[in-house]
Amino acid sequence: MKTINKLFCMMAVGLAIVQFSGCGASEESIPGDKLHLEELAFSLRNHLEHGPITSVDTAVAKPDTVPTDPNKVVPLEDANAPKNRSDLESMRTVVKIFYGSKNAGITLPGFGTKLQKDESSLNVYYIETKVVIKDKDSLVYGIGYSVHYLFKKLQKGIDIKDFPNVAASAQLNSNKTQVSYTIQTYGIHGLILGKFFDPTGDSNFNVEGFGAMKSSIKGIHTTIMDETLSKLVKYTPTQIKFVRPYDLEQAK
Asked: pLDDT (tens digit, 9 = 90+) per residue, 100-113?
């Protein structure tokens, strides 16, 4: 796997050098807030093996709709709360998009930092869930994983849907393309999953980061979906913050 990733990274950089060699003064950056993340969301199935994107939500991303304390988890005492994986519905993909022009100041999922006015954030959740009513509030509990992207700026002329070129631009022109990512899991535990995570937290979305991200996503997804490997994982449904019941309805 490491050899394949290195070859892939070398090819991406080589392609980028050819493409960028003719660029001159027109090399400018597009602020993250001006990018069209909806297009990227629907193309992710081709890059990251998430499967079809069935829910893209940009309308509800307002500061007052996001928990003021993103680390707060409501304890469950409901007898109907999910106790294990068999209590959950099948997997689905939910996408949450935040634009700085509308949502500046919110605490970003996956990063814990505040969204700036000239930034945007794409958050992809691949989850098995159950909606639980607690104190008149509807909460989403489940298991799975998510990938979070923070776009500060993108070099002009780069197709945001072309992840290898985005990564190559971040590698060769880091002053013009700045993208970060994080990966999180929910309610899945096991030594077999440890090798898929970088203990440093959020990472730069450059060539090396792109290769590492793809490897991690494939490893996590394969582990929890494989009939044999999934038995090595412990499943404890937990609250999936930032995902609301109406997101799941859209994803059906």
From this structure: 999 999 999 999 99
